[in-house]
Structure formats: C-alpha cells, structure tokens
Specification:
The radius of gyration is 27 Å and the shape is globular. By secondary structure, the protein is α+β, with helices and mostly antiparallel strands. Helices cover 31% and strands 23% of the residues. The termini are far apart. The strands form two sheets. A seven-stranded antiparallel beta sheet has the order 1-2-3-7-6-5-4, with helices on both faces. The protein has a seven-stranded antiparallel beta sheet with strand order 8-9-10-11-13-12-14.
Length: 366
C-alpha cells in the first residue's frame, strides 16, 4: 500500500509538471505570434481619442491589421490620437486624428491651410461627397480629410475633425482615412451631445488634384464648381479655361479656378461655409483689422458674404488674382477689378442659390 501511494504521488507530480510545461510552451507561442500584444493593441484602440475612435476603416487606411494607438494629449483639441501600423520603413504608416469645437479658438496648425489661397491651386480642397460636410486636402506629401458637423441643437457650434494620413496614399487608404475621420466625428458628436446630420459610409476617395494643364477644360464645358462662370466674359479677360471639382452643396469649401490658354490658373474663387468660413476669417484677422480685406495690402482680390441657414457663421466668398511661383509671375498680367467683382458675384450667387442662403453682399476694399 505504501509503494502504491508513492507511485501516485510521483504520477501526480509528473502530470503537474507536464501541465506547467504545456502552459509555458503555450505562452511562448502566444508571445511569438503577438497574441498578447494584439490584446494590448486592441485596448489602446478602444481607448483612443477619448474612446471615440472609429475602427472600421483603420485596416484600409494603414494597410495592416496590426495596429496600435495612443492619445496625443494636445490641450488645443477636444480629443487627439494617432494610430500606427507595425511595419517599418516605406511600409510604415500612421494616421492622426484631432477634434475640436468650432466655438473654440482654432489652433494655428489648422489655419495654415488658408494661408496660400493666392498661390496657384495650393489651397484647393476636393469635396468629400456622399452627403458629408467635408473636404480632402493635400500639402507637402500629406493628405487630410476635414469634416465639420454642425450641431442642429446648437446653431453656433460644430464639431470639426481632422484626419491626416502619413504614409502610402491611394484610393483605398484615402477612403479608409475618410471613413475613420467621419465616423469618429460622428461618435464624438454623439458622446458630447451634439446632434448632427451625417452622410453615407465612405469607401474609396480619389487622390486626383487640380493644377496640371490636363486638369483644365474649356470654360463652356464647366459643369461643377465653375458652372456659374460659363456665361461670363472670363475668356475675354485672359482665362478661357477652368479647373473645377464636382459641385457639392454639403462641402464646407468650394473652389473654382479660371485658367489661361497656357494652362496656368489666373484667378481663384473660393467659398467657405460654417466652421471653414470662421477659420478662414481667423487666419486673415490681421489683414482684416488693417482694413485690407482677407489678404495682404498689395494683393488683388474681391470678396463678399452671405447668411446661410446651416450655420450662425456668415459664408465668405473670395476671388484672388493668382500668383505662379514656378514662373515668378502672374499668369494674368493685368488684373481687372470690374471683371473680378462680376465673376465673384456670379460664383457667389450660384453658390447661395444651391444652399438657400440670403442675397450676396459685396464687400468694399480698403
């Protein structure tokens, strides 16, 4: 009996040791495959941007399922976070999300997009489409999706979200960025009590941009953002062609470019609404205080405003005589103030009609 009891103790110890060894091996396998890290990464995504990060578009935006997130801790924003894939080198990519209220002071970084309206097509923005109040912008290798969701229960307030893609940009990754940005903004608005109108689910977004001669078309063929200029004297004023984006009554920014016969943008027309209008005027505050209008004192321009039902902020319309840095010259050598005001009025009248705004008020120059 004593010997059998000893055997039992030996067998029990052997089984216990075998179990511990199996658990250790399982742990090594899970660690090697990244399962532990994956759980930690999932939790970081759930916590990101104050728990509002929308995750459905992340894999498309960063072409990876191995992702981790961290909050930026930027006091200028309501919430800010970044998401990275696990790759290094050219395959490594990340996106940054930042959100704020339009009623708060705009951080200087968000205003930089409005500082080059007179510089060719540098300040262009493509409408996001699909019913979203947003645009796609590009500068120095970075694409940004900006969406401004007006609070229908607080007319003077909108939730503004910025999504920057740092890495490979194509229709798929840009579409993922658009989905993450719009759906995160929607979740954040709901969390903070801002009732908003949203658009449809985004898939792919185009990386196409205006600027090269092949993006121009004859003035009489305009059918999008430049359609209002089709019957004007633009051709007789040195700009027989246009560069345009599709018309979109939901976009917070609309732009149209009148182009010379050599394919150079000569005049840029811009419309800003809601939070974008407020930020544009903020970016030009020093000029406005000096009485120059929304530009430096030595630049040629025309501008106007209108009241639109979507926001307490007046819409702003601006025409700039464009400068071409490539040739260090103005593609349209002689600026016509009378034509500029006529063209801007036609552009603004069409825009306000599409959005149900009040009559356009032309603003005087200093």
């Amino acid at each position: 009996m004593q010997m059998k009891s000893g055997f039992r103790r030996i067998h029990a110890g052997w089984y216990a040791g075998a179990c511990l060894l199996a658990l250790a091996l399982l742990g090594l396998v899970l660690y090697g495959t990244g399962a532990f890290d994956s759980g930690s990464d999932d939790r970081s995504l759930d916590r990101a941007c104050d728990g509002t990060l929308a995750q459905d578009g992340l894999r498309a935006a960063l072409h990876s399922s191995h992702l981790s997130a961290g909050d930026e801790g930027d006091s200028d924003y309501l919430a800010a976070c970044s998401v990275h894939n696990s790759a290094s080198g050219p395959q490594g990519s990340s996106l940054e999300l930042k959100m704020r209220w339009s009623s708060a002071a705009a951080p200087s970084g968000t205003l930089a997009w409005y500082n080059a309206d007179y510089n060719g097509v540098k300040a262009q923005a493509a409408p996001l489409g699909h019913g979203w109040s947003g645009v796609v912008r590009y500068d120095s290798g970075t694409y940004q999706v900006m969406v401004a969701l007006d609070c229908v229960n607080q007319k003077s307030k909108a939730l503004v979200a910025y999504g920057d893609l740092l890495g490979t940009a194509n229709s798929t990754t840009l579409g993922g960025l658009g989905r993450v940005t719009t759906e995160t903004a929607q979740k954040a608005a709901e969390k903070y009590g801002c009732q908003v109108k949203t658009g449809k689910r985004l898939t792919g977004l185009s990386t196409a941009r205006l600027g090269t001669p092949d993006t121009a078309k004859l003035l009489q063929q305009a059918e999008g953002s430049c359609v209002a200029l089709r019957g004007t004297a633009a051709a007789r004023n040195g700009t027989p062609e246009v560069m345009e984006y599709p018309g979109d009554p939901d976009a917070p920014q609309t732009n149209c470019y009148l182009v010379t016969k050599t394919g150079k943008p000569g005049y840029g027309l811009y419309a800003y609404y809601g939070a974008a209008a407020k930020d544009f005027l903020t970016s030009e505050r020093s000029h406005l205080k000096k009485g120059y209008g929304p530009t430096d004192s030595d630049r040629d321009y025309a501008w106007a405003t209108a009241t639109c039902p979507q926001s307490a902020q007046s819409a702003v319309f601006v025409l700039y005589h464009l400068y071409d840095r490539d040739t260090d010259s103005y593609p349209v050598p002689h600026y016509s103030a009378s034509f500029a005001e006529f063209a801007l009025k036609a552009f603004a009248d069409h825009e306000t009609t599409q959005r149900g705004c009040t009559a356009v008020q032309m603003m005087s120059r200093a």
